[in-house]
Design a protein that fits this description.
Helix 1 runs antiparallel to helix 3. Helices cover 92% and strands 0% of the residues.
Length: 90
Amino acid sequence: MIAVYGRIALEFGLRQTAMMEEWANWAASEITSDQARRSSEAAGEQGSEQHHDAELELELAQGQGRVQERDQVRDQEQAREQAQTQKQEQ
């Protein structure tokens, strides 16, 4: 049963992380939308916005790296479970 509970906890973490990534991508697109860009240009903050956009792109890239790490952990967990199941079947 420990393997089942561990898999359930892992799946919760994976789904929660995927939801947060989806939200972060949505929020970034809202921030960098044409309307926000026009508003900031009108206020004379174009240089500041470009710096902010670069920071957002970096954060998104880091988030994608975390998603890749999460996927690797999930794949490793599935491989361990398969190996354990095969061992039990023998």
